[in-house]
Amino acid sequence: MLIEDGSLPRIYDSYVKSAAFVDQVNPNTLEGRDLFLGVCDGGSSHRWPEIVITQRYEDACGTFHPGFFIVPETSILFIGAGERLLGYNVERRERVFEDRTDYGFWGWTRQEDYILMSAELEFGVWRTTGEKLWSTFVEPPWSFNVSGENVELEIMGQRKKFRLETGAVILTNFS
């Protein structure tokens, strides 16, 4: 992967002309930062990306940084930047989802068949195939811990346990 945050590469036009798939998300937005992502074929000897994804995102004064996660067995690429969440099937060269999170994205984490998304005000769960299962509001300070098929969220000192698959609440305010 080729990544450039804050500007487009100098040879951006050449990358676009050479790519098999190009997705430009909000390219004409005046505010925000440019994010460039080029996905190269792993078996290729040249460095021209086959997939080019660009977007403009709000960076909340440099507080939040883009994050990427690829699931090799499903070819799903998860991207988070600012408040925008994107998913792509890189093998089929198509966008599979676009979502939003309030205020700012923190990161992606994998837990077996699930991709967990952390953001300033949201915790979300996707399948490794790119299907969003559920999300819930959180408020800083917050953290999470996964145990088997459950996830425990601690939000401002209060604890809740959820099923990863469904988001169903199992326990609240326990020790």
Number of alpha- plus pi-helical segments? 1
Q: Which range does the strand content fall in?
A: over 45%
Tell the overall outline. Answer: globular
Kindly state the percentage of residues in helix: under 10%
Report the C-alpha radius of gyration, rounded: 17 Å
Biggest sheet overview: 4 strands, mixed
Low-confidence stretches: none
- Provide the residue-averaged pLDDT: 92
Major sheet: arrangement of strands: 1-3-4-2
Number of strands: 16
Through-space gap between termini: 43 Å
Question: How would you summarize what this structure contains?
Answer:
This protein is mainly beta and 175 residues long. It has 1 helix and 16 strands.
Q: What would you say this structure looks like, in words?
A:
The chain is mainly β. It has one domain. It is built from one helix and 16 strands. The strands form four sheets. A four-stranded mixed beta sheet has the order 1-3-4-2, with no helix packed on it. The termini are far apart.
